Amino acid sequence: MTDQLDTGVESDLNPFWMPFTANQKFKAKPYLLESAEGMYYQSPEGKVLLDGTSGLWCVNAGHGRKEIREAVLSQMEKLDYASCFNIGHPLPFEFAQRLIKHTPGDLDHVFFTNSGSESVDTALKIALAYQRTRGEGTRQRLIGREKGYHGVGFGGMSVGGITSMRTQFGTPLQADHLPHTVNIEKNAFTRGMPTEGIHLADSLEDIVAFHDASNIAAVIVEPIGGGGGVLIPPEGYLQRLREICDKHGILLIFDEVITGFGRVGDSFASKRFGVVPDIMTTAKGLTNGNIPMGAVFVSKKIYDTFMTGSEAGIELFHGYTYSGHPVACAAGMATLSIYEDEGLFNRAAELESYWEDAAHQLKGLPHVKDIRNFGLIAGIELESRPDNAGALGHEVFEKCFEKGVVIRFMGDIMAFSPPLIIAKSQIDQLFETLGSVLRELN
Asked: For residue 287, what are the contacts with CB-CB under 8 A and spacing of at least 6?
């Protein structure tokens, strides 16, 4: 079937099976982007659209960065590909050395992947292998959290806490889930971290009591949840998880795929919150979304545990064809230079108060149920229509697009995570546009 787009250009949309998309609905009314520069996208029709989501939580330094483009082109001319299996090239070693200057605590070893999903599955495999390597092979159970999103691999799907992620596939790994931290009854319209909810971390003690610590390998949480609806941790919650994990010899994994690289006002959320995990997953902002890449950071303790066997033996039977890809490393290092040179790791902290005030001006508008924010992240939760959850969110997305703003909707929760280069006037435009749409839909 050939579809006719509004541009007058005939294009068969059907061969591409789009991810996380209602394909039939989209292809009946497609929303297409053709180019991007700075804070803005442009549609094939020439419509300029303010990017309120950094692409997909990844274009932290803004679109069309010349420095990254030139680094990629230069690297492709020099070395387009080289394996990292029993051979190597200089770039991943150099990139890893630069990255660990920004990580918390002793997270000073890096395993490169190609995405957030791969980073999560890598982290889970490292956790399981670590426990076995140190002689505690019964520790095979993993703990996630309700409403948590950890990618689409079998590991991430199992520890993730979004029901729709497992409905079609089941739960392949042994996993339990902590309760989520959203409490609208007590914490609605909280600015920053809610004061109510530290006790929810103690649910980990209940899981330990049920399974026994000797059977639990690791706990994985997002410092700030994204895909589950912008979940801000209560004060003291992450610290309490750290304490319980230490008490029982359980590894703590932070999934920083969306919070890493300046999103919350520091290089990583773990630094902003003052809690150091044993393993940390990243992707997205690692290369500013320009080239697919992820990175898993592990503590010296974990790395050294694997390095105790024969020097001739492979310590971890895991890896990817494109781990440490030279072009991805070039993009990553150029991106890191931008973050460092332009002070973007601190940018969210500088704008946080203005961002917060702009978001909370929506309180009291039609349909607004809750507002949650931290750093340059905001979630506006809307009242769902009876028997039609998600319909309002999709309609709001469409109308904002028509008014020149790209936002992300997760059911009836509207998520904002703009490039860190955003100006105050553009912050105003984001929330004023959403406000006008909500008034029109009343």
From this structure: 68, 293, 328, 331, 332, 335
Contact predicate 417/37, CB 8 Å:
no
Spatial CA neighbour of 127 closest among 249, 279, 245, 270? 279
Do residues 437 and 396 lie in contact, with contact meaning Cβ atoms separated by under 8 Å? yes
- Rounded-to-integer distance, Cα 159 and Cα 177, Å: 7
pLDDT digits (tens, 9 = 90+) for 222-270: 999 999 999 999 999 999 999 999 999 999 999 999 999 999 999 999 9
Residue in the structure block whose two tokens are 């749409």: 437
The confidence band for 171, taking pLDDT boundaries of 50, 70 and 90, is confident
The residue-averaged pLDDT of 273-291 equals 98
Please measure the distance between the N-terminal and C-terminal CA atoms of the chain and give it in whole angstroms. 38
* The pair of three-digit structure tokens given for residue 177, joined into one six-digit string: 């889930």
- ∠ CA 226-230-235, nearest 5°, is 115
Phi, psi of 421 (to 5 degrees): -85, 5
pTM of the full structure? 0.96
Q: Would you state the pLDDT for residue 7?
A: 45
Is the pLDDT at 4 greater than 60? The verdict is no
The phi and psi torsions of 116 (rounded to 5 degrees) equal -65, -40
Neighbours of 46 (CB within 10 A): 9
* Per-residue DSSP letter, 191: S
Residue among 271, 253, 254, 275 at smallest CA distance from 262: 271
Token pair 């890096």 is found at 110
- Which residues fall within 8 angstroms of residue 118, CB to CB, at 6 or more apart? 151, 153, 283, 294, 320
In 7-52, where does DSSP find H-type helix? 23-28
CA 249/CA 244 separation, integer angstroms: 9
pLDDT tens, residue by residue, 116-130: 999 999 999 999 999
- How far apart are the C-alpha atoms of 58 and 72, rounded to whole Å? 17
Structure tokens at 268: 């990583």
d(CA 392, CA 441): 9
Residue ranges and CATH numbers for the domains of the chain are 31-60+344-440 (3.90.1150.10), 69-341 (3.40.640.10)
- Phi then psi for residue 220, to 5 deg, are -125, 130
Token pair in block for residue 401: 């697009």
> What value, to the nearest 5°, has the Cα angle with vertex 324 and ends 319 and 325?
115
> Which burial class, exposed, middle or buried, applies to 278 when counting CB atoms under 10 A from its CB (0-12, 13-18, 19+)?
buried
pLDDT of residue 133 exceeding 80, the answer is yes
Are the beta carbons of 262 and 420 closer than 8 angstroms? Answer: yes
CA atoms within 13 Å, Cβ hemisphere of 210 = 10
